[in-house]
Design goal:
By secondary structure, this protein is mostly loops. The protein contains no helices and no strands.
Length: 294
Amino acid sequence: GANETIEVYNEKGTTANAIYAHSALGGINLNAGRSAAGAITLNASGTAGGISLQTGSSGVTTATNNGVFTVTTGTGAVSIGADAFAKTITLGSNTGATAVSIVSGSGNTALTSTGLITATSTGAIALTSDASVSLEVASGGILNIGTAASLSNVNIGNEIGASAVEVDCGTGGGSFCASATVHSTTLGGTTGASATTVQAGSGNLVINGGGALLIDSVGNTEINSSAGLIKVGTDGVATTISIGNTTGATSVVVDTGTGDAKFGASATAHATTLGSTTGASATTLQAGSSALTI
């Protein structure tokens, strides 16, 4: 009847093969027609019982017809492909809306490889953490971000609140936008009270340009030295040095302390002009209690 059962029972056998089903040349087929969960149940009910599946090179294939495949172990570990043989392990597929989720609790999630670890996606790859995200390389390695030969933008940081970006280096130096390509480089912002500081220690601070060097400010522009000389146009290149302009009431003031002021006094043959002959222009040469020598 509907409740009929067939039991294969060994009451006293304790060996691993106490019940042994064997086919010398053919297969063994277990087929249950019941349309419900648990149609076929393998149960090792002993406290330390286990189930072992061993095959030849044809492997093990487990398939469900659009059903769920669940593996649970309680507090036991789950190992896949953990034996000491080289092999390829594939989880998931790229068909349609297939999704793969790797979840851990308060323990860590570790990806470890003696070769490359590659993450490839036609969509976005997002790494998000409530704590910190660290990308580290061993001593002597290189950390590359956005270096593949493809047209892309690389963004670091955001403009929300007090967000900060810090880029540090050791004695190897830092290089920013120094590639041999034609491009623009912008440091700092012009919004509100934004400030930009470019600084150096006891070494030089060098600014080079193949074109013009423009320094423009709405406020004062100062070039100062606490101990050295201030030189403008002193390298050995023939050039014209212009100070000031002829717009409106623009004025030029050149002051000195107790040192001398010299104009056109170099030991070269050249003309020196003071003053202008235009309109009501006036020129004043003056001296204090010492002589005025012309």
